[in-house]
Amino acid sequence: MTAIANVVVVVIGLVALVLLPRSTAEDRSPVRAQPPTPSPKPSTAPPRATAASSRKVKANEAGLVPVIMYHRIVPKRSASIDRTPDQLRQELGRLARSGYVPITAAELVAGKIDIPAGAHPVVLTFDDGHPSHFAMDRNGMPKNDTAVGIIYEIAAKYPDFRPTATFWVNREPFGLRDREKQRQAVKWLLDHGFEVANHTYAHPDLRRLPNQKVSEQIVRQERLLEKIGAPASTTMALPYGSLPRKRSRAQAGKWDGTEYRFRGVFLAGAEPTVSPYAKSFPRYAIPRIQSNGKRGECRRWCTTYWLDWLDEHPRERYTSDGDPSRVSVPRKLRATLSPARAKSVITY
Ligand SMILES: [Zn+2]
Fold it and tell me: CA nearest 233: which of 205, 200, 272?
């Protein structure tokens, strides 16, 4: 009996090994991606979508887009919002295998979604400018186990996975105090197609501040970003996802003679956003999804839940027609699109 029981255990063990998702082992392999020097896009004409080609890939550009929110990427988690490098690897590997292609938050709010036909956009966002997001090694390359290092690892393994992300930073971007080092970091990220934008100067809860202080926090950070070589932010993420009492202050305002105006303001929870081409796109309160498992309050608000849900509801998800100049939707969704897109719509 014991012998039989042992055989059963061994067999179960073998089956478990075989059934383990290949990704678990693969995504840990220490492939060092070489961030390529940025090169201009090939000069071939952009693809033209047609009703037939859109139907073929089941394009739905009115669908849902996950905007994923990450904080620190550390080997030992001390807060529930921390993720380990392996957890980030697993999640990005999953996204790549499910046909997601990263775009920046700026591209999302500008409606510049240039990904292959049949692919789904995802926005990877990292808050608070932690050193675990970006740091350079001695050779001027992104360090292993930083967010940028891991993004390049995944892109090396899955060539369709475009290495890009948005970093919303405060007064010490990536934990750097030295202006010159801040400048180098921002330059590297911008040169490689990443976005660096405004998360306020001192990370206050904007709801608790008087209007002028809200604008001061945003303007101080815009001035810092300008000093270190970043363009004017077109997106901002609210600290704690907390909107100011006068909500419009988060999107536009003026302090000490400096004006700001964003094209998108991002919250800290808790579901996918509708497409920027939809009438109902919540441009100044765009939801994000915290990267996390399924425990506690994450039972249904974090990435494990939502990425499963999107896999199970493919018709709800944004699927690209591959043509950045056209917006393709199934006929019954035509009316959900913003009138501003009317001239470029393909229905099928
Ligand atoms: Zn934050």
Answer: 200
Cα dihedral: 239, 243, 244, 249 (round 10): 100
The domain defined by 22-28+49-347 folds into TIM Barrel (3.20.20)
Rounded to the nearest whole angstrom, what is the distance from the C-alpha of residue 188 to the centroid of ligand 1? 22
Of the chain, the percentage scoring pLDDT greater than 70 comes to: 87
Cα 316 from Cα 313, distance rounded (Å): 6
CA of 71 from ligand 1 middle (Å) equals 8
127 Cα: distance to centroid of ligand 1 (angstroms): 5
In the chain, how many H helices and how many E strands? Answer: 9, 14
Paired tokens of 161 = 């996975």
Residue 345 sits at φ, ψ, to 5 deg, of: -85, 140
Q: Give distance in angstroms: CA of 128 to centre of ligand 1.
A: 5
Read off the pLDDT of residues 37-53 as tens digits, 9 standing for 90 and up. 655 555 566 679 999 99
Please give the distance, rounded to the nearest whole angstrom, from the Cα atom of residue 266 to the centre of ligand 1.
Answer: 11
Between the CA of residue 28 and those of 24, 145, 164, what are the distances in Å? 7, 11, 20
Measured in angstroms, how far is the CA atom of residue 216 from the centroid of ligand 1? 17
Alpha-carbon gap, residue 139 to 142, rounded angstroms: 9
Cβ atoms of 298 and 292 within 8 Å: the answer is: yes
Pairing of strands 195-198, 166-169: parallel
Domain ranges of the chain: 22-28+49-347
Mean pLDDT of 139-151: 96
In which band, very low, low, confident or very high, does the pLDDT at 33 lie, cut at 50, 70 and 90?
A: low
Q: Which pLDDT tens digit goes with each residue over 156-210?
A: 999 999 999 999 999 999 999 999 999 999 999 999 999 999 999 999 999 999 9
Residue 133 alpha carbon to ligand 1 centre in Å: 13
CA 263 to ligand 1 centroid distance, Å: 19
Count other C-beta atoms under 10 Å from residue 174's C-beta: 24
Rounded Cα gap, residues 59 and 122, in angstroms: 15
Q: Which residues surround ligand 1, an ion (CB under 5 A)?
A: 127-128, 239
